[in-house]
Amino acid sequence: MATHAQGRRVGQSGRYSDHVPARSDILVEHLEANGGIVYAMSNTPEFGAGANTFNEVFGATLNPWNTTRSAAGSSGGAAVALATGMAWVAHGSDMGGSLRNPASFCSVVGFRPSIGRVARTPTSKIDRTLSVQGPMARNVEDVALLLDAMAGEHAADPLSLPKPARTFRDAMRSGWRPQRVAYSADLGITPVDPEVAEVTRAAVRRLEGAGAIVEEAHPDLSEAHDCFKVLRAFDFAVSKAVHLRNDHALLKPELAENIEKGTGAHHAGNRRPTSCC
Asked: Which domain holds residue 229?
């Protein structure tokens, strides 16, 4: 999703392409208070909704390693900026992989923090607990450094958490290793490319070499996809229904469908939508 920085044009949707926020998001205020300099805005899908980074305003963001391929989304612009050296660290948001997928596609690092770890400006009167803001960088140490600058409590965000006593960068440098690790290449629910699965197994073998006990196991997540589709549709209805009412013709079809399913799920209580993009 687009995160507001005061005085900087932001908008990946037709009607809002020239929108200039009058005030920065809490996240941006925290970054700047900790010495961060916001010098550019990166591309996302319309309203940050989508697994590929394209929109009608700025077009498609291509994979820097092979421009015939996708950079993924929604934080594809941030991942490409890192991979090409345009940025040292970058911020992104993540509902269902929007930090992690572009990082994977572009060979950088994306980290999804816990809910509340990074304060943000609330945009609705109903709590939204799917999406979080998080750091991206070319290596883990820089991710930890940026998370230290992003994290912190704010009175305007009731879900926000205090800064931990120990910095994430210090924790990353501590040399701590887990004693026991559960590992699954696919969590029992999602197809995974064999090459990607092998990369994760190689990482697990390194943990074993460091003395950790590794077991292949995962919880029963068989209903996770259905649950996520319902929760995402509800989130879209809470945050974006006004755009459906006022600008239906300007929204990409997949976004409009998700909002419609969310409003239908809301009115019908716990009725499960038949499908969701």
From this structure: 223-277
